[in-house]
Structure formats: structure tokens, C-alpha cells
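Please, structure for the following, as C-alpha cells.
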Amino acid sequence: MYKIFSVLASLAIFLFASTVSAESKKETVVSMMENAISHFEKVGTEQAYKDFAVKGSEFNKGEFYIFVTALNDGVLAFHGANPKLVGKNLGKLKDTDGKPFVVEFRKVATGPGEGWVDYKWPHPVTKKITPKNTLIKTTGDYYFAIGYFE
């Protein structure tokens, strides 16, 4: 009986910790988005992108990084984890399940202007394909995106 209780208690703690962790990550993304857009509007595009690129900064820490896309042509203007993607239109990109998530990004950006999109993407630290939830928010001629991995 004690073993069953221990296993159930451990499972409950694990599930609670996972939920708290996901909620904490979501809060981190929301806060980071507010700070990034505020910074972008304050210092301008060039300086903001330089600041966003600094690894370990408030704008680029581990799995949390910013990417910015132009609304007019869908070209990636900045990517905190993979600068090689800058200048490319990723509109046809799909995740491992075939989901056209970049199309969904644009729908959110040009529709309500803010919202979440879920898809699968390589984790920047583990390199494993992992479920990701990304917040999209439009400001001016761009949409910003920051996500967290489950």
C-alpha cells in the first residue's frame, strides 16, 4: 500500500511540476515579448537586432530567442538562434507532421495581430524535434515571435 501511495504521490508531483514549468515558460515568453518590442521601438531596428543577438542576454537565453519577420514579403529579418535563416522567406516551411506553421504565423500576424501557434521544431540545445509554442505579435511592419519548448 505504501509503495502505491509513493508512486502516486511522485506522479502527482511530476505532473504538477511539468504544469508549473510550462506556465513559467509561457510567462517568460510573454514578458520577453513585451520587453523586446519596447526595446525595438525605443532603440530602432539595427541596435535592437544587435542586442537581441547577444547570447545570454535578456533577449536571447537558451531556448528563449526572438525572431522577426517582415509583414510585406514574409522574409525573416532576424533570428536569435540561427542567423543563417535571415533574408529567407520560410513561408513554405512545415514541421515534421506537415503543419505549415509559418503560414499560421502570418495568419495571426495579419489577423488579430497577436496569438499562439504550436508546432514541432528542433530544440536549440538538445537538437531534438520537440513540441514548441510560439507567441506572435505584430508591431509596425514586422511580426515578432518567441516560443518555448514543452
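The chain has one domain: 29-149. The longest strand covers residues 129-139.
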